[in-house]
């Protein structure tokens, strides 16, 4: 798989799997933009705390979904699970459009989170195992960063959906969820282009199916590129098993790869805290501190989301050339320094709504690449047989520690109306980013251009 040239097959693979992040970004951004609208008595009449609580329900669902479906992905395969998680996600999004009070909205956000959490584990596993090693870093960053392409679309759509002159306040936000759910159904068609991972098949005793899958992929790539593929180089002997016990999996993560586990956890906590703190509450910040009308938040969110998407796209190449450790440490560290400066200026009340947004664009251009690299790290530095569960565990722990607390904490800081109180929250996020940079520099793995098997020996490796 690693010797294959880039082809239309790989492009379809990236689109079929990455499009979920686009839709997730679309509806999560709509949630962020509709925060003030949901306080309207004509909508759900929620309080600021309830809006933060609903965001936390979504994150809790994502954590639980990641753990459950991460294990199922390693046990039953990547392909089966990313169909199931997509259906759960779409169901949760459509149900969110039909919510009638806080508890129904929170429950449906929980279900949506279950689906998206499972998608993280299954999709990142599939991408890493099907994309050639020389492209793996940039592709993984772009796929995870495509969330922000959807966020830009969601922010733009919110300008229309939340305009009371066009749509009733209680209908526009529901329509946004409904559109996202319908579009999600179309992804099922694209997913038929994605085969099961041959790496997963061979380690689970399905050698013949793995050989057929690889042969079909090779024929497809040769036909699309017009190139004759070089012969495969190297041999890796494995002892296949239908399943691997939790004891084997956690022994590898906690003992043999303890340093890697610490690294993945610190990176995930830092990025989860930052992004959940800012993007679940930015509509509230604009309204509370800058007096931006609730239906105009999208004007500021569109350029911010575009900057987030361009970061992984323009910087992703360097993660495969300059190298993982230098780029991951550099992007986390620079993000932390920029956020520190922004927190001070915000505390001094020297920003306007637009200058605040421009500061966020600069920060998140870099921080978005850093956040995507956290998922890349968790997905490529552990053995094949535990890849999906490793992604799930560190996503769950990182998001549980950083993501669940952040929306709750920041809604309280925003409600205080005190600039320095919110600036203190931003400074705490900056400290986490700098800590992540130092951890990456000390414990990071130079995985660029290497096969997954050479980065971490499979548990089923002979001997």
Mind telling me the CATH class of the largest domain? Mainly Alpha
Mean pLDDT over the full residue set: 83
What class do helices, strands and sheet pairing give? mainly alpha
Unreliable runs? none
Terminal CA distance: 24 Å
Rg of Cα set: 22 Å
- Overall shape: it is globular
Note the run of SSEs as H and E. HHHHHHHHHHHHHHHHHHHH
Strand tally is 0
| Proportion in helices | over 70%
Individual helix count? 20
Describe the structure.
The chain has 20 helices and no strands. The two termini are 24 Å apart. The chain is globular and about 65 Å long. The chain has 463 residues and is an all-alpha fold. The protein has helices at residues 8-33, 35-38, 48-76, 78-96, 102-130, 133-145, 147-161, 169-190, 198-203, 207-225, 246-256, 258-279, 282-290, 297-321, 324-347, 353-380, 387-403, 405-416, 419-443, 452-455. It has two domains: 1-240, MFS general substrate transporter like domains (Growth Hormone, Chain: A, Up-down Bundle), CATH 1.20.1250; 243-462, MFS general substrate transporter like domains (Growth Hormone, Chain: A, Up-down Bundle), CATH 1.20.1250.20. Helix content is 78%, strand content 0%.
């Amino acid at each position: 798989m690693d010797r294959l040239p880039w082809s239309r097959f790989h492009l379809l693979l990236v689109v079929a799997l990455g499009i979920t992040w686009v839709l997730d970004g679309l509806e999560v951004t709509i949630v962020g933009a509709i925060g003030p609208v949901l306080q309207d008595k004509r909508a759900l009449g929620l309080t600021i705390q309830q809006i933060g609580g609903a965001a936390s329900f979504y994150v809790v669902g994502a954590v639980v979904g990641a753990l459950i479906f991460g294990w199922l992905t390693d046990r039953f395969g990547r392909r089966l699970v990313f169909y199931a998680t997509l259906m759960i996600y779409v169901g949760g999004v459509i149900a969110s459009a039909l919510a009638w009070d806080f508890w129904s909205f929170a429950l449906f956000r929980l279900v949506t989170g279950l689906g998206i959490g499972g998608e993280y584990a299954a999709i990142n596993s599939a991408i890493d195992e099907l994309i050639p090693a020389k492209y793996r870093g940039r592709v993984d960053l772009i796929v995870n960063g495509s969330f922000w392409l959807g966020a830009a679309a969601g922010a733009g759509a919110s300008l229309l959906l939340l305009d009371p002159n066009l749509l009733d306040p209680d209908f526009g936000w529901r329509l946004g969820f409904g559109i996202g759910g319908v579009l999600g159904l179309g992804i099922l068609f694209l997913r038929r282009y994605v085969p099961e991972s041959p790496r997963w098949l061979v380690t689970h005793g399905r050698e013949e199916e793995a050989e057929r899958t690889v042969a079909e992929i090779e024929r497809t790539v040769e036909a699309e590129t017009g190139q004759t593929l070089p012969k495969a180089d190297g041999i890796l002997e494995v002892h296949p098993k239908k399943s691997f016990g939790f004891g084997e999996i956690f022994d590898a993560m906690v003992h043999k790869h303890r340093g890697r586990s610490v690294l993945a956890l610190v990176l995930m906590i830092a990025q989860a805290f930052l992004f959940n703190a800012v993007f679940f509450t930015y509509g509230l910040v604009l309204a509370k501190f800058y007096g931006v009308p609730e239906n105009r938040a999208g004007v500021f969110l569109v350029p911010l989301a575009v900057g987030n998407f361009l970061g992984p796209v323009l910087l992703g190449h360097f993660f495969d050339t300059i190298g993982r450790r230098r780029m991951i440490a550099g992007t986390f560290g620079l993000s932390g320094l920029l956020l520190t400066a922004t927190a001070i200026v915000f505390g001094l009340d020297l920003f306007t709504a637009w200058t605040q947004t421009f500061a966020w664009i600069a920060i998140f251009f870099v921080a978005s690449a850093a956040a995507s690299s956290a998922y890349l790290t968790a997905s490529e530095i552990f053995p094949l047989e535990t890849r999906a569960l490793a992604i799930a565990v560190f996503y769950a722990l990182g998001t549980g520690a950083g993501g669940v607390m952040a929306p709750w904490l920041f809604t309280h800081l925003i409600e205080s109306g005190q600039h320095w109180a919110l600036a203190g929250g931003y400074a705490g996020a900056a400290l986490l980013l700098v800590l992540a940079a130092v951890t990456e520099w000390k414990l990071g793995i130079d995985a660029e251009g290497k096969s997954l098997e050479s980065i971490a020996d499979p548990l089923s490796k002979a001997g």
